[in-house]
Amino acid sequence: MRRRQEEAPGSRLERAVVRFDESDAARTVVGLSRSLGRPSVSVGAAAGSPSEVRITVAWDLCWYQWGVDVSEARRPVTEIARGESVEQLDRSARHWNASLGEDARVVFGTAGSPVRRRRMGWLRRR
């Protein structure tokens, strides 16, 4: 009997993004984006859990984090934390490896941070 091959980490992250995009959390992001602009997005493994993925969405004025447990399809996407300053986030949560696409869905695997680009532009003008 063949052992089932372990799933690639990328597919776990991609499944989490799909679940997130179908959740109320995604609607929250869309609503905030209308007034705050395009956010920076980070998708990564949650510390201490092999099946939970952490999705961080940040603007200049605030940030939110949600957890998606990909092992339980019925478990809802849950808010983990929120804050007012991107500097409050740990380094791994500021690894901007996704974005909000034109269709208002999280697009995993795209580099770039609107928050960082705006700040860098501000630094260059001084």
Q: Could you provide a short overview of the structure?
A:
With 126 residues, the chain is α+β, with helices and mostly antiparallel strands. The protein has 3 helices and 6 strands; from the N terminus they run H-H-E-E-E-E-E-E-H. The protein has helices at 9-21, 24-36, 114-125, and strands at residues 40-45, 52-58, 63-69, 78-83, 98-100, 106-108.
Can you describe what's shown?
The structure is a single chain. With 126 residues, this protein is of the alpha+beta class. The chain has one domain. It is built from three helices and six strands, in the order H-H-E-E-E-E-E-E-H. The strands form two sheets. A four-stranded antiparallel sheet has the order 1-2-3-4. Mean pLDDT is 83; it is low at 1-5 and 115-126.
